Amino acid sequence: MEKGKAMARRWAVDFSDSSSSSHPTVADPPGFARSAPDLDETSGSRQKKDAEAAWKAQKAWEVAQAPFKNLLMMGFMMWMAGNTVHLFSMGITFSALWQPISALRSVGKVFEPYKDPKVDLNAPRLLFIALNLGGLLLGMWKLNTLGLLPTHASDWVFSLPPAKEVEFAGGGSPFY
Amino acid sequence: MEARFLLGFLLLLSLSSFAFAIYEDQVGLADWHKRYIGKVKHAVFHTQKTGRRRVVVSTEENAIASLDLRTGDILWRHVLGKNDAVDQIGLSLGKYVLTLSSQGSVLRAWNLPDGQMVWETDLQISNPSNSFLHVLGNVKSGRDSLSLVCNGGSIRAVSSIDGLVVWKKDLSIDGLKLKHVFQPPESDTIYAIGFIDSSLIALYHINAKTGELLKHATQASSVDLSSEISAISSDSLVALDTSRSNLLLIKFMAGTITNHKLPLSDIVQDFSGLAELIPTKSNDIFVVKTPSNVAFIKVKGDNEIELIGKADEAGIVSDSLTLSEEEQAFAVVHHSNNAISLQVRINGREALTEGIKIEDHRGHVKRVFLNNYVRTDKSHGFRALIVMEDESLLLMQQGEVVWSREDGLASISDAVVAELPVEKEGGVSVVEVEHTLLEWLKGHMLKLKGTLMLSTPDDMAAIQAMHLKSTERNKMTRDHNGFRKLIIVLTRSGKVYALHTGDGRIVWAHLLTPLLQSESCPSPSVLTLRNWRVPHRKALQENPSILLVGRCGAGPESHGFLFIVDSYSGKVLETQILDHSIAEVVPLPLADSSEQKLHLVIDDKLNAHLYPRGSDALEVFVREMANMYYYKVENAKEVIKGYAFKKGCSTGSSAYCFGTRELWSVVFPSDSERIVATARRKINEVVHTQAKIMTNQDVMYKYITKNILFVATVSPKAAGGIGSAAPDDAWLVAYLIDTVTGRILHRVTHQGAQGPVHAVVSENWVVYHYFNLRAHRYEMTVIEIYDQSRADNKDVMKLVLGKHNLTAPITSYSRPEIATKSQSYFFTHSVKAIAVTTTARGITSKQILIGTIGDQVLALDKRYLDPRRTANPSQEEKEEGIIPLTDTLPIIPQSYVTHTRQVGDLRGIMSFPANLESTTHVFSYGIDLFYTRIAPSRTYDSLTDEFSYVLLLITVVVLIVAILVTWAMSQKKDLQEKWR
Predict the structure, then answer these.
(1) Membrane-crossing residues (chain B) (predicted)?
(2) Do B8 and A86 make contact, defined as CB atoms within 8 angstroms?
(3) Element at B572 (helix H, strand E)
(4) Residues B965, B966, B972, B976: is their CA dihedral positive or negative?
(5) Is B110 exposed, middle or buried (CB count within 10 Å of its CB: 0-12, 13-18, 19+)?
(6) Under a CB-based contact definition with an 8 Å cutoff, are residues B499 and B487 in contact?
């Protein structure tokens, strides 16, 4: 995801830079014909933009589906970790919880490079969110099977202090 | 991944390993052990010219010990059983110590230098009574020497070499009581003198080698004879008559007996009252103690008697000491205020008088033993071993106390804990800090060397020494962890000692009863001690204090007294002789405005007297009076009774006196049950939670109440020792009784079981120990009590919202529905005492502290006594720490709290919390004292002393350096990257 984003941006930046930042006062190098790209600006650029939009949409779907693989992997890891509470299973479970949460938090950023007026990002975004929520649920389920969710009465009374007693009786065997 | 899984599991296992032990070099870090001998009753000096000078003593605690005369250190010591009281000790052949014990039925020989037992002979005496031992000096059958044991009318001669009974003579005359045996020098005949029915004097001549009766004669006495005699020469003795006002001089020359009556008033001018003969073995001199004075009397010629010396009545007279053929010495010791004067009289004449100042907390002189040594100028020097009222032992020589031993600490009867003063702010100089820092660093460098195995033996010794003399643990101030405290103990003699938990030293000691002694309080004795004021938030500025309760006489109706003593200094803050008797002291869970704890003193007429006397205390009590109850266990009547308090008492109109009203009684059928043990929870025990969580996440609510009394009864036939009843005649019934309402909450019968029963109650469980006659083994049973009336509180939503009745105050009058879970296990040892660890907040798991028959303290995890144990626990149960059920409780050698030490004649174990939740103090006492700190679930809340701070420091420094280096390297690399 990270890599894809960076590449897309560089490509886009380069493209706009070369068109806007060239100084008209500086002479073109010998053999360079500026008129050439300007020629098919209208038809060629639209075509290109279409292709780009299609590419973006495709990429966005790919990104949206990425958590599925993660989900499978997590499932496998959880199965391996077993149902006892120890360092390994705890680590797996917490990473399984943390990954969807962090992904959900950065859901805007993930789809930013594919922002395009022609591309409808809502569907991939929803899929992405749904898959991550699925991951979160899986993590929660694991947490529950480990017994770490306060779903039992015992989790709420484990540190309940003893109730006060009203009466007090003292005594014993008298001294002889 | 599988490997990691396994590793994780192993880690978990290692964390939950059950054994608790310390390394050898940790011995003495937190623990201390003090050895005592008890109140000395006999002493025999062994002061030959070569070798160590020593004194062999026997004590009221049934201990025999050899003490170094120079230092008072114990060279060796043996503690005989509880029923094996030492009657007499003697030396034989110059190398054996003979002890006659168990009312003259067991004779033992101990090797003098090292205390090994050489032989033991059971004399098979049918009616043990006043026996005495006589070591014959010069009967030599081969290289052997004989010891005679006389009991009633029989004499046994025992070989000193191997303890075999050489001959036995039963004189078989009814009512004969042998009084004296002697053997003239260079003779093979033994003379035995006895009284028959206090009217006849009998003399027997016995062959010393064979025991053959050679001759005997009897003669009627002119007066009724009492049992006191004093042998004054080889052919005469003096006896007192039953009226204790006449002396009878008995002579038995050449097989005939003559007796001559001498009224004491003829000899001692102002004689009146009852006289007492002080047993001596001396040359024509005997000592009579009368109420007004001590008289030294010499027998001259046939029936002439002369008073040769007098001493005033308070004097304590030692046994006689033979200096030479003609010379006999006595020591007379007087005590006044805080000085002792020792007077040595040779043949009744004053030879030496020495005065010594001693601490006034030792009380009066009780016994004195005299010994002499020969000075370089051939004159006699004297040393005296003095037993004081507080049971301490002093050696006096040349006008000073050479050494003293606080042997009163061998008879601790009660103990409480008090805090030390708070450390003053400021006052620590920079130099001191630097010095300690340097020391600290040095110490840790040494420790690091130790852990890295680089240290030399010298370093090792230095580490050990450092451990032991660590000043931190011996400070007289409170510490953050609560490791330093004062243990305040009361001994049988009524002396109160404050011991420091750091090293067991005596911070202060006071014998308070002499302060009270007066006409209104003739013989004060202290019964018990309690915490009187424990400074808490409100009254932190006040010193903590303790309450001592006692009574002025012996009977239960004699008046009581109270002392309030400052815990820091031992200063008496308040003394009060009460106008009522004391049958029981009940500490209440209430305190007045100055944090003085409220106590009710119950007198023999069942009135309750409130202390402290103050209007706010009264107000506090009256407000709570309706909820206060008293119960009384009457062991003799097999009854437990419960009482409520009411205003106005039967004996007076004091506002602080309350009457009682009987509410309930539990009467045990006396033909089938007899109370043998009761136990209740400690009043100050803290319980962390009321919920017990099962493996399946289910909750059980503990039935936690302070008002629960465990009572064990056995069948009357089985009330004796083990073996006295057949299994069918023996049963043990365990009761759990609510002491407010008298309701029997639970009752269980163990068929074929009998006492002794030892029980401990804590939180919601009882553990008790008894003997199973059918299995021929000791057994331990645990009963856990759960509250069924709260069991419905299982709705999570209600609990989340706080809609439950779990924190509502509970009353015993609402009908408790309890469920019990119980399990029994075999246990290898018999038990002398049982206790449970207590921690500050009650979170740490519990250990049961068991005083074993070997006088050690064993810490047994409560997890072994868990009714949920099954033979094949499921995986979840195993994870929770449930141990597979076995029929026997394991005894893991590492879990002996006392490691290699023994607490002779262990009588009590006490556990009190430190401020650190993980740690608890354990103090066990018997003849010896042993103190240590244990952490039942390991020290999870602090670093141990063994933690290497230097290693940590080095690691941190290395890590910082590594970070800096890698940071610099990455900077450099970045720059290069950019230049590329």
Answers:
(1) 947-970
(2) yes
(3) strand B572-581
(4) positive
(5) buried
(6) yes
Q: Edge-to-edge strand order for the sheet containing B200-207? A: B176-182, B189-196, B200-207, B213-220
SS3 string of B417-451?
EECCCCCCCCCCCHHHHHHHHHHHHHHHHHHHHHH
**What is the token pair recorded at B134?**
């006589």
| Most confident by average pLDDT, B322-336, B416-430, B724-738 | B724-738
**Backbone angles phi and psi of B457, in degrees to 5:** -55, -35
The CA distance from B941 to the nearest CA of chain A, in Å, is: 18
Cβ distance A163 to B806 less than 8 Å, yes or no, reads yes
pLDDT at B15 over 50: no
Q: How many residues does chain A have?
A: 176
Q: Which chain A residue has the Cα nearest residue B638?
A: A173
Please give the helix or strand (H or E) that residue B931 lies within, else none: strand B929-934
A84 in contact with B, Cβ within 8 Å: yes
Put simply, the answer to whether B739 touches A151 (Cβ < 8 Å) is no
Instruction: Find out whether A169 and B630 touch, Cβ atoms under 8 Å.
Output: yes
Give CA–CA dist B726/B363, Å, rounded.
50
Per DSSP, the three-state class of A90 is helix
Q: How many Å apart are CA B482 and CA B419, to the nearest integer?
A: 8
* Amino acid identity, position B525: S
Does residue B11 belong to the interface with chain A, where contact is any CB pair within 8 Å?
A: yes
Residue of B nearest to A146 (CA): B876
| H or E element in which residue A48 lies | helix A41-81
The residue of chain A with its CA nearest to that of B805 is A163
Q: What is the pLDDT of residue B428?
A: 46
Which of B168-172, B402-406, B421-425, B955-959 is predicted least confidently?
B421-425
- Is the Cβ–Cβ distance between B111 and B90 less than 8 Å? no
Check residue B620 and report its DSSP letter.
H
How many A/B residue pairs have CB atoms within 8 Å?
162
Tell me which chain B residue has its CA closest to the CA of residue A175: B583
Closest among B837, B4, B611 to A81, alpha carbons compared:
B4
CB contact residues (below 8 A), chain B span 727-786, against chain A: 739-740
- In the sheet that holds B572-581, the strands lie side by side as B525-533, B545-551, B559-566, B572-581
Is A88 in the B-facing interface, judged by CB distances under 8 Å?
A: yes
Task: Tell me whether residues A171 and B628 touch, CB distance under 8 A.
Answer: no
Contacts of B161 (CB under 8 A, 6+ apart): B93, B143, B144
Which residues, 6+ apart, have CB-to-CB distance to B876 below 8 Å?
A: B695, B696
- Side chain identity at A147, as an amino acid letter? G
Q: Which residues pair with B417 in a beta bridge?
A: B487
Calpha distance A95→A102 (Å, rounded):
10
Averaged over B318-329, what is the pLDDT? 76
How near does any CA of chain A get to the CA of B2, in Å? 8
B552 by Cβ neighbours in 10 Å (0-12 / 13-18 / 19+) ranks as: buried
Confidence of residue B564 (pLDDT cuts 50, 70, 90): very high
Query: Which pLDDT tens digit goes with each residue over B230-262?
Result: 777 667 778 877 777 777 788 776 667 777 777
Secondary element (H or E) of residue B356: strand B349-357
All residues at 6 or more sequence positions from B258 whose CB lies less than 8 Å from its CB, including other chains:
B219, B250, B251, B252
pLDDT attached to residue B270: 67
pLDDT number for residue B18: 42
What is the tens place of the pLDDT at every residue in B23-50? 777 777 788 999 999 999 989 888 776 6
Dihedral sign, CA of B65, B70, B71, B75? Answer: negative
Q: Any CB–CB contact under 8 A between A151 and chain B?
A: yes
Q: Which of residues 784-803 of B touch A (CB under 8 A)?
A: 793-796, 799-800
Q: How far apart are CA A61 and CA B335, in angstroms?
A: 106
B680 part of contact set with chain A, CB < 8 Å:
yes
